[in-house]
Amino acid sequence: MATRSCPPQQQLNVSRPIRAALVPKMRLEDFCDRFDLSVIILQKLDFLKVTGPHALRFVSDAQLVENGGMDIGELADVRDAQERWTLGKGQDD
Length: 93
Fold this sequence. Notes:
This protein is an all-alpha fold and about 90 residues long. The protein has 7 helices and no strands. The termini are far apart.
């Protein structure tokens, strides 16, 4: 008995969100300025060699706290700004 199989593309038509890839890269300094992040946060991200918001999705919260010395409020501000950047928003929106 032969089994029917559909090409992989037809079996699962699930799209994964890739919004970050659609938003233009931004320098870290511009990101912090546009999203009103403090100079202290800028310095901590720069110390970790984060070049902009496009790189933040590869950095865990634990790394930002343990290696970057961020406190919970700074972490929340960074993740909020990252989310707004991903959605194409800025401090004026």
